[in-house]
């Protein structure tokens, strides 16, 4: 496992995605449609807890949808090729990093569209900087948890259905902490109070990545 | 006697279960007819549970604050669990919560904490002592604590909590076998992990059922949105997902590896969820957010005397069930091999 390997793999992921721009477009369209449906459905200002919950539900499903491709787009041939080029731990770290970047962009874009359609009433008393930080961290956290799950689901040879079943209970600790932290930010809690949750999310991220790093080599070999 | 621990488990479970259902609750006051003091003659009807008011010596009744003890002028016993006490309340009292205390020779001192409010603003409760003659110590009775809200449901502690402990033990066994599966690539280890999960799901179901009944009795709802309860739900979901994952991979050695990886990953995250997260948040459940855990309850050695054997017994019985399931599944595999 080397840094060069990881950066090389990251570059490869990026180039692959650049070539299949439809995938990125699809993800964005998914989020925008979901938000638009909510906009049509609710009409009028939402109370803060509902506004918060709705946002995270949309982002959760967007994450499942975006990350399920992560290991699925590889056919057997390319897998063997990757296997000869790089160690499994580099692969999983590069994938996690790339997915985290994807989710970071996706969650911030989702927030933008969400605010655009559903209004900023809920942000009235919010610590906006804190809220954006939590959204970014939450996106990264979802990516960290779901990368290994996506690899397992891809190995099991089934798609989104299995990934949702496997991922949902595992992602809940992260999701609940993130929702609580973002609720705190929306309620305007001072940083000294809310930082516990934010640090906790970071710790959970680190733990998850460490677990993926530890377990992935066993998944990789056939 | 290789099987002594199975016998021990069975004896402990049967013994602890019978004891848990049969031991009476300690006597306690459960209700008082009034919760406010009004000047003049005021009568309180006090209801007790498992009390013995109608004995030879009449009980004493008083109101207690931190610095004063205000005795009832007359006490009239109406039955084993009911008495009426009349107080002569002076004018101008206020600003205090007082406990209602009954001293009955057979039952000892029975407090009903913060039972009466003296009203806003005024003088504190005066001291009006009555001579409580020290009576013979009450004989030692084996009984469970009688707490408000819990009452008779406190017995459930001896069923509900052992289920979760046993489930966690079996999940620990499963995760150990999963780690072994990854190192050895052996299908036998994988099968052991699966059987441990199967039995642990049975205990999860029992834990959910006993917990749900308890929640209905004490909190008024079958399910509440609470971190501990969410932890229980997530645990159950994880192991159901584990079974679904196994079902969707036909090839045995691949299935073994995928299942082991998911089991380890999910177990660690679940542990974090169940152990750490509740400490960050409030919860109704004992052991969280300022709620006392059962072990801190004013040290009830008598409850512990039943609870610890129950935990040990259920754990042994759970392990026994696991070894039986494992033997059965190995025999089935052997039969399959023979058929071929």
Helical coverage of chain A, percent range: over 70%
Give the rounded overall mean pLDDT of chain A. Answer: 86
Taking the alpha carbons of the first and last residues of chain A, their distance comes to 20 Å
Tally of structural domains of chain B = 2
Average pLDDT level of chain B: 85
- Based on CA atoms alone, the radius of gyration of chain A comes out at 18 Å
Helix amount of chain B: 40-55%
- Annotation field: number of helices of chain A: 8
What can be said about this structure in brief?
Chain A has helices at residues 3-19, 21-42, 48-67, 76-85, 88-118, 128-155, 160-186, 191-220.
Question: What would you note in describing this structure?
Answer:
The complex is a heterodimer of chains A (222) and B (340). Chain A is 83% helix and 0% strand. In chain A, helix 2 packs parallel to helix 5 and helix 5 packs across helix 6. Chain B has 340 residues and is of the alpha+beta class. Chain B folds into 2 domains: 88 residues, Immunoglobulin-like (Sandwich); 189 residues, no CATH class. Chain B contains 7 helices and 8 strands. A 4-stranded antiparallel β-sheet of chain B has the order 1-2-6-5, with no helix packed on it. In chain B, helix 1 crosses helix 7. Chains A and B meet through helix 6, helix 7 and helix 8 of A and helix 4 and helix 5 of B.
SSE blueprint and pairings:
The complex is a heterodimer of chains A (222) and B (340).
Chain A: H1 3-19, H2 21-42, H3 48-67, H4 76-85, H5 88-118, H6 128-155, H7 160-186, H8 191-220
Chain B: H1 4-22, E1 28-32, E2 40-49, E3 60-64, E4 69-71, E5 74-79, E6 82-89, E7 97-104, E8 108-117, H2 157-184, H3 187-218, H4 227-247, H5 252-275, H6 277-280, H7 301-339
Antiparallel strand pairs in B: 1-2, 2-6, 3-4, 3-7, 5-6, 7-8
